[in-house]
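Deliverable D2.4 — example input (structure tokens):
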């Protein structure tokens, strides 16, 4: 299960998506996430699917690796779909005992399932194709105007970079601790929900101790290197737009136009919601 958590990981590959400026990918991901909550017809998600499928093809990241990240949020996905499917009012279309499915519940469950899937997969694709350093530099550069109103942009970007770096490290640490506990007879797989929750205590305690120790070591290392924030700091590899980045901005603009056009058609009643 731990190995299936791919959120926050970087997948090295030689693709045009990997070579894009991180600011382009941040803007594209931001617009992609917003578009997921604008549509009320399935036709809109056809546009989303075409855009996302094209991005996956350009990234050269295996589809199996991308979909594997869904296992980490499978419980949240099932709970969301289940809640919308069985507990929303509407015209009844199926009933078996106390189980009742309505047309509105089925409609909302499908929409929430699609939205949640694209939300997780779209966000993961950005981290698969962007290193934490690139993501930090892109975020800091994009939010640089906020420095004029005293927003600590560099510190915010640094915290996000450290968080992204710690995700795979903590997952690896969790896997090692779990294997060590299983070698000593611990059982994480059998028993009821309460028993399995109690069995995680020997896993969580050393994990928290390890996380605090790593955080303390990082703080001491930054202090030993006289880290004092982003004022006056230079970049070894400064960000610079290239022709492919402007082409990507053009594609994003086309996608934005399709989003707006589809939304206007929905408001005009020219697209059926189902």
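Example output (designed residues):
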């Amino acid at each position: 299960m731990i190995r299936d958590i791919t959120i926050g990981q970087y997948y090295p590959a030689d693709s045009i998506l990997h070579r894009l400026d991180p600011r382009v990918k941040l803007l594209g991901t931001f617009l992609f996430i917003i578009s997921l909550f604008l549509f009320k017809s399935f036709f809109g998600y056809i546009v989303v699917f075409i855009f996302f499928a094209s991005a996956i093809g350009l990234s050269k990241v295996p589809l199996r690796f991308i979909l594997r990240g869904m296992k980490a949020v499978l419980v949240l996905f099932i709970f969301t779909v289940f809640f919308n499917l069985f507990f929303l009012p509407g015209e009844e279309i199926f009933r078996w005992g106390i189980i009742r499915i309505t047309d509105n519940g089925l409609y909302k469950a499908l929409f929430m399932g699609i939205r949640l899937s694209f939300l997780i997969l779209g966000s993961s694709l950005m981290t698969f194709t962007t290193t934490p350093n690139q993501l930090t530099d892109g975020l800091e550069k994009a939010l640089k105007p906020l420095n004029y109103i005293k927003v600590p942009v560099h510190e915010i970007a640094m915290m996000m970079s450290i968080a992204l770096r710690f995700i795979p490290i903590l997952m690896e640490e969790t896997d090692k601790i779990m294997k060590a506990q299983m070698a000593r007879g611990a059982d994480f797989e059998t028993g009821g929900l309460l028993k399995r929750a109690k069995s995680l205590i020997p896993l969580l305690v050393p994990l928290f101790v390890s996380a605090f120790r790593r955080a303390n070591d990082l703080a001491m290392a930054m202090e030993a290197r006289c880290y004092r924030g982003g004022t006056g700091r230079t970049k070894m590899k400064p960000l610079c737009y290239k022709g492919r980045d402007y082409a990507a901005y053009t594609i994003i603009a086309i996608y934005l136009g399709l989003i707006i056009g589809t939304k206007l058609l929905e408001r005009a009643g020219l697209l059926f919601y189902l």
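The chain has eleven helices and two strands.
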